[in-house]
Amino acid sequence: MLRALEGIDISTRPLAGLTGRNTVRELVSGVTLLAIAVPLNIGYAQIAGLPATAGLYALVLPGIVWALLVSSRQLVASPDAAAAALVASSIGGLAVAGSADYITLALAQALICGVLFLLCSFFKLGFLADFLSKPILVGFVGGLALDILVSQVAKMLGVKIDSGGEFVDKLVGLFTGLGHLNPWSLLISLGALVILLVGRVLARAVPWALVVLVVATIVVVLSGAEKAGVSVLGPVDAGPPKLTWPVIDWSMWLALIPSAIALTVVTMGEGLLVSRSYGEKRGYPTKPDRDLFAFGAANIAAGVAGGFTVGSSTSRTAAMDQAGSRTQLPTIVTAVGTLALLLFGTALLEHIPSPAIGAIVAVAVVPLLGIADFAKLWRQDRFEFAIGAVCFLVTLFVGSIAGIVVAFVLAVINVTRRAAAPAIDTLAADGDPQSSLLDAAEPGTATAPGVVVVRLAAPLFFANAETFGKAVRRAVDSVEGVEHVVLDMEAVTDVDVTGAEAFTGLHAWLTSRHLDLGLTRLRPGLADRMRHLGLLDGVTVYDTNRDALATLPPPRGHGDASHADA
Predict the structure, then answer these.
(1) Strand, helix or coil at 473?
(2) Which three-class secondary structure state does DSSP give residue 277?
(3) pLDDT class for 245, splitting at 50, 70, 90?
(4) Mean pLDDT across the stretch 111-139?
(5) Which pLDDT score is estimated for 2?
(6) 200 or 432, greater pLDDT
């Protein structure tokens, strides 16, 4: 299976970085990760509208597959809040949450995500994640986080709302249900919040989420709060994951593809970014295509083993980094520990109060709202802030799929907007910029009598072709006695068909005015491209060494152009 996709580098040994010295530390980190992951995955499964076992199953086989295949030594793969919300919003309209059909669709969705990840790995499409800029990710994830937070607050207060409904419906249900608030649920939630927040300040290494679950469960059992209306997790099926295959109509497979694409793109964007950042921080190499392969295999394992879509967990990765972990052994420890819990300890989970789970998830989700990030964007760039805000609002009020579509549209608009106004300068003989040709208040400056040199600091393509042509014409018109126009091509890496047409039109305009067109510092690859497009006919290409500007032909009547190397 591993060799099936040619070009995928899987040479790095599994559990790279594990040595005799750090084994004990990695095992302890694994216990910490287990204590963090179990309560969170139970909560995320509830967000997704799935039974608690789906969250636990997603830690077992997918975790082992991930740890053995991934190149990153620290990135933790698991269902997270954003993935759970996407699952709920995309499948909620196709089946009733918690039903057998709903669970089957969740498995099918994970399989589709797995296939998409494998395809992205095979075709080396990791670069697509670069289109999700930070403002887009902040807005998209923030919208999902606020939607999740409303559901968790309702759970903390003991208020019944439709967790699979639209955000506005959830918000209305929360406020109208405040009259039916359960005092016991409120007390449990407040206690859980105090333990989580104060405990984090006192000792970050302690798994406070596990402490909350244990204490809250004991309180519920001893006080009889369940009889007073406090919701609990309820019976959890015991036993290991069972291999299965979702059987659904082809129409349903097709209906799941858009949401699977959204899940894949979001996981790809966040996962590869976090993987690369920790690799650079800790001094080990990462391989994006191999990580995509690992995501694909892990999601297929989730789909056949009763889990749901596996994404990347930034919070758990950070927790493992703080614990000193530098390998994937903690993920395997978590998988083994979760399997033991499923075999022997599910009875311990039955009386876990839902308000405590809601408090744990709420504390984990609040940082995803991106409040600090939005404030920073507001100070740094109002346009980038607007992009994040639009993505946030669309995700929140229209839906997650619409949010990811808008995210990509905004990304393309942002890229095109920046590319449409590149730096275009005139150069003096030493190559330093003299004036911006985009500023009409400053006319172009000739480098020598009769010569204007123009530099475009970007590829010449459809977004800036017209701007470039106008800038050169304006430069020529602003200098008297121009006979030669030279384009400094050092910063130009490519020319597309639209750019080629603009170049041809500019050449024809210069020829009609009896002006020579020359190119200097032309890259070899670009020269081949321009020659293929027929752009070098009648154009002088000057020597590309450092003294190229000194080889420019003098004005007519002052010599010839014998120094030119055509």
Answers:
(1) helix
(2) helix
(3) very high
(4) 85
(5) 44
(6) 200
Give the whole-angstrom CA distance, residue 16 versus residue 327: 6
Q: Phi first, then psi: give them for residue 204, nearest 5 degrees.
A: -65, -25
Q: Are residues 402 and 538 in the same domain?
A: no
pLDDT digits (tens, 9 = 90+) for 193-230: 999 999 988 887 787 888 888 899 999 999 988 888 89
Query: Is residue 161 domain-resident?
Result: yes
Span between the terminal Cα atoms of the chain, in Å: 54
Indicate the pTM of the whole model.
0.71
The total number of structural domains that make up the chain: 2
Contact 510, 540 (CB under 8 A): no
Of 417, 394, 398, 387, the C-alpha closest to 133 is 387
Spatial CB neighbours of 21, under 8 Å, sequence gap ≥ 6: none
**CA distances in angstroms from 521 to 137, 197, 454, 501, 562, listed in the order given:** 39, 60, 12, 21, 18
CA distance 439 to 434: 12
List phi, psi (to 5°) of 517: -115, 130
What are the DSSP calls for 291-336, one per residue? Answer: HHHHHHHHHHHHHHTT----EEEHHHHHHHHHTT--SSHHHHHHHH
Give the range of the structural domain holding residue 374, as residue numbers without chain letter.
Answer: 23-414
Q: Does some domain include residue 565?
A: no
**Does residue 155 lie within any of the structural domains?**
yes
Q: Residue 14 phi/psi, 5° resolution?
A: -60, 150
> Which CATH number goes with the domain that contains 510?
3.30.750.24
